[in-house]
Design goal:
Shape: globular
Strand content: under 5%
Distance between the termini: 37 Å
Number of strands: 0
Largest sheet: none
Helix content: over 70%
Number of helices: 17
């Protein structure tokens, strides 16, 4: 498979894009905090604006990408993100960078990232043989895990070493590299045939929403995901202020602390292959969610020099990442087990929408709490809010799942 030049170009471009995207998740908020001296409320607005495209576009992008060449979508998304970040650098050099411009950049980068992420997953199906899909997905998702580790650390280090606006150039360079690599894919990709007019597409989307709403297990997954993403977005808004202002950490130290989530996620993936079959899916799901979310309650209690706080933050984030990935993989297995083959994509999109769609509201709440109650109290309140997700899981049918998953139902008539 690695002898396939077009696959190598896709993998290289996707890896560069993921690094740029995850670096931006740290660089843009740190520009607001360190350069524009943004308060908690405005930082919440910035994060909400960057997350809003998930709420606005996620249900429609998948159906829309099906009608386009994915190579075209990815190239245009890379070019747009590079231009947006380049404008940030230029504005910083000219002293003309303000919060309104940063809000526009965050929204544009977030929207184009939704398009790119959907397109690269769809592109693989059109690029490689069916028997190569498993290996291809493993390579691409491995890149994304690596970017989750390296991206925040890289972004934080660049903000620490350079001026914050100049650090945005790193994301632009990664998107340019992705653009150049994906543009060189030679295999011809025909435009997919249209599968009906937009009203039919809406009916198919609604069929997925109804299926999730009527299935007890999927409904529980959606509600727990929504509760977690809401509280997590609120906590991260306060967290990104708490680390540099309350604990007086540098950009590099912030990136290091956040990057510890990545190795934890890798461990969680390995544990997910063994623990549910040994202790039961329900037990593992509820226990991992409770342990990982409760670990974040230690962060507001931290005091002292960086030599003390950074190792503690690394340990907490490592545990949080491991437990979070264990929950993610287990719930994905449950979702796939109870969903018919013909509904898999729409169920995944619906749950993503239900979960990530609450993130902008959580970011706004986090900024409001930090502004009104202070950073330490605001972080304690939002970290406590994370515990709502394991509570919902414990009260749902998911908690009663044993070592084996229910059989997948056959095709049904809900195709819309």
């Amino acid at each position: 498979m690695w002898r396939d030049a077009d696959f190598r170009r896709l993998w290289t471009g996707q890896t560069a894009s993921q690094l740029g995207e995850h670096a931006c998740l740290v660089v843009l908020p740190l520009i607001a905090v360190l350069t524009l001296h943004t308060d908690a409320g405005r930082l919440g607005v910035l994060r909400a604006v960057g997350q809003a495209p998930i709420l606005l576009f996620s249900l429609f992008v998948g159906a829309w990408v099906d009608r386009w060449r994915t190579r075209t979508v990815m190239v245009l998304a890379d070019a747009g993100r590079a231009v947006a970040l380049g404008a940030t650098v230029l504005g910083g050099l000219l002293g003309a960078l303000g919060l309104p411009a940063l809000l526009v950049v965050a929204f544009v980068v977030g929207a184009l990232s939704v398009f790119f992420d959907v397109a690269y997953q769809t592109s693989l199906v059109r690029l490689v043989r069916r028997d190569q899909l498993l290996r291809g997905n493993s390579a691409l998702e491995g890149s994304r895990s690596a970017a989750q580790i390296g991206g925040p650390a890289l972004g934080g280090a660049l903000v620490s070493l350079l001026s914050a606006p100049i650090a945005a150039a790193s994301g632009a360079l990664f998107f340019v590299l992705s653009f150049l690599s994906i543009r060189r894919i030679r295999r011809r990709e025909p435009v997919p045939e249209s599968r009906g007019r937009p009203p039919r597409m809406r009916r198919r989307i609604m069929a997925g929403v109804r299926f999730v709403a009527h299935d007890p297990a999927l409904r529980a997954v959606g509600l727990a995901s929504a509760a977690f993403q809401f509280a997590f977005a609120a906590m991260m808004t306060v967290y990104l202020l708490f680390l540099p202002r309350e604990l007086h950490l540098s950009g590099g130290a912030v990136g290091l602390a956040l990057a510890a989530t990545g190795p934890g996620a890798l461990l969680g993936s390995l544990l997910a292959a063994r623990l549910p079959g040994r202790f039961g899916h329900g037990m593992v799901l509820v226990s991992a969610a409770a342990l990982g979310d409760a670990a974040m309650l230690w962060v507001p209690a931290l005091h002292g020099p960086a030599a003390v706080t950074v190792p503690a933050l690394v340990a907490v984030n490592f545990l949080f990442g491991a437990c979070g990935q264990l929950v993610n993989v287990t719930t994905m297995s449950v979702r796939q087990a109870v969903t018919p083959d013909g509904m898999q994509g729409r169920v995944a999109a619906t749950i993503t929408f239900a979960g990530m769609g609450t993130a902008p509201l959580g970011s706004l709440l986090g900024g409001l709490l930090a502004e009104r109650w202070g950073l330490r109290t605001g972080l304690l309140l939002t970290a406590t809010g994370l515990l709502l997700s394991p509570a919902l899981l414990a009260l749902s049918p998911l908690a009663r799942l044993g070592r084996t998953l229910p059989a997948r139902p056959g095709p049904d008539a809900t195709d819309g």
